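ok so for the tutorial part 2 we go from a plain amino acid sequence to predicted structure tokens. step 1 is just haveing the sequence, like this:
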Amino acid sequence: MPATITIPAAAAPVTGTARPPGSKSITNRALVCAALARGESVLSGVLDSEDTRVMVAGLAALGVHLRADWPAGVVHVSGTDGSIPAAEASIDCAASGTTMRFLSAVCSLGHGSFRLDGTPRMRKRPIGDLLEALRGVGVEAIAESPGGCPPVVIRSHGLRGGRAVVRGATSSQFASGLALAAPCADGGLEIELEGRLVSLPYLTMTRRVMEAFGGHCDVAGDCTWRISGGGYRGRAYAIEPDASAASYFAAAAAITDGRVRIEGLGRDSLQGDVAFCDALADMGCRVSWEPAAVTVAGRAARGIDIDMNAISDTVPTLAVVALFAAGPTVIRNVAHIRDKETDRIGDLVRELRRLGAEVEERPDGLTVWPQGAAVPLQPARVRTYDDHRMAMSLALAGLWVGDVEIEDPDCVGKTFPDYWTRLGELAGRPVRRSGG
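step 2 — the prediction. this is what the tokens look like for a chain of 436 residues:
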């Protein structure tokens, strides 16, 4: 029998303090910068998850020496000074989009042939815009699946400097991957960001992590990055907690009229997803900020109309919160999340409807109508599509509805392996596991 997790209703309004695990996005960017740096780096606060282990394994396959103490959240990295030691490698990126996109660009620094593959879903996630940009600077970059999707083959004789154009309408990770490799290119690289860009805060995060390791990037206007070729320097680097993971704890307070203090994240976070708390404030929660903490209290009492392009990883979380607000919530400008681990619009709508919700699907988003007395939400068994964010978000409905059953709960290992324990502790009732 396949494993499931059942979420009981919270014993009382959710109250407490939580510190999310380390940021996956920062961890994988810092690992790349440390791997390409001159000298040694020690990364602390590292997230131990499937995605970060996949990145470490991928860098090791390229010949980088890394020593990970996962229980301590520490990784020691011996930098390669901008080179790729291996002349050939086969890299299993599993379901990690950052590993696939970032290492496809990093492999262009090598002299040899490299192949990157992943899960069946990864073979449906487009990467053609990045490969086209690499071809524009002399790299042989091939996508072996239809529609410009992985597996990816990179054959390179080093990354030459010059000018690269990369489109950003599908994923900011294409530009981020190219930017992370650019300080080690011959003479640096000018990157032109073409067209409508999605998830802009992640590009800012990339630049700030690069600069922390000594990379130099001049931003001209909204769409040109001039990255010099000085490489990176090894250093000690502390990784802040994951803001996307924090959204689940904040949402638990918003759904149950509770109060949760989230440690390690403030207004000046590297991660744009801290703005999820601002969305909760717009819905009626009381949000108070400290230099390194944020507290969310009270119920999300009203629906909102919101453009979530910049914080699109938190769309499923907000959609679940919206089930318990008064009035509809309209989520806009997130068409690109259809190309995530699953279709996070169509599949999210389908699973919310299993709970009895009234939801409208649109090409670029969705509208959620709250539960009413005539048609209350109901316990249900929901699918997760091997998508960690679907699992963690949909589970939150169970804190109020009770007995919401989550299929394939172990998919949360991608970014938050002990999520079920942490959620049960915060809610005052352990989740129930069956099967598996």
